[in-house]
Amino acid sequence: MHFQRLKLSGFKSFVEPAELRIEPGLTGVVGPNGCGKSNLLEALRWVMGEASARAMRGSGMDDVIFAGSGRRPPRAFAEVALTAKTDPDDQWGGELEVVRRIERGAGSAYRVNGRDVRAKDVGLIFADAATGAHSPALVSQGRIAAVIAAKPAERRMMLEEAAGIAGLHVRRRDAEQKLRATEANLGRLEDLMAGLD
Ligand code: ATP
């Protein structure tokens, strides 16, 4: 999966629609302090499903919506769209577009190639591609120190994410839940059958 484009509207300081093209090779973002460089990285995390407002440097998720400035009123919503090139033979037909939108007081909604999906589905797409909101490839300020100080279990999670197997853990948990529900149903069925004898 190769990220191609990040489009932001009403997200943090990006009040007007803005687009970042991610060409093959190295992309550099330069600018004075406070111009929004970290906000761009946060937008990437957010569209991939970040659920923690603290990780977005806010107290609630609505804080990612443009809060207004001297001359501009606050926005009612924020939207971030990520376009990526994928395998031409995969279920996305070679191009994936994930959109996350948040409306003040109404929470987030996701779309993948135009279809409404759950946050969990988006998480799985990126986990399978060995990336995501918590990918160790996204190195924000203070992160290096956090990696050095990480506990062995946290380091293991980073390695598992890098190896692309984080999504398998989610699927295993889902499968275990289904298995338990099926076992409970079978138990009830046996009780019913015993009642019919
Ligand atoms: P530095 O180089 O100092 O790390 P930076 O370029 O990474 O800075 P950011 O931290 O991305 O800058 O951007 C901070 C700016 O974003 C601040 O001016 C802050 O006021 C603005 N900002 C953050 N959230 C919002 C919001 N919800 N609405 C409007 N502006 C916001």
TrEMBL record:
Biological role stated in the UniProt entry: Required for chromosome condensation and partitioning.
Give the record's subunit note: Homodimer.
Protein name as annotated: Chromosome partition protein Smc
Coiled-coil zones: 165-197
Q: Where the shown chain sits in the full protein?
A: 1 to 197 of 1149
Q: What is known of its domains?
A: Contains large globular domains required for ATP hydrolysis at each terminus and a third globular domain forming a flexible hinge near the middle of the molecule. These domains are separated by coiled-coil structures.
Where, in this chain's numbering, is ATP bound?
32-39
Give the top-rank taxon of the lineage listed in the UniProt record for this protein. Bacteria
Cell location: Cytoplasm
Q: Which family does it belong to?
A: Belongs to the SMC family.
Upper lineage: Bacteria, Pseudomonadati, Pseudomonadota, Alphaproteobacteria, Sphingomonadales
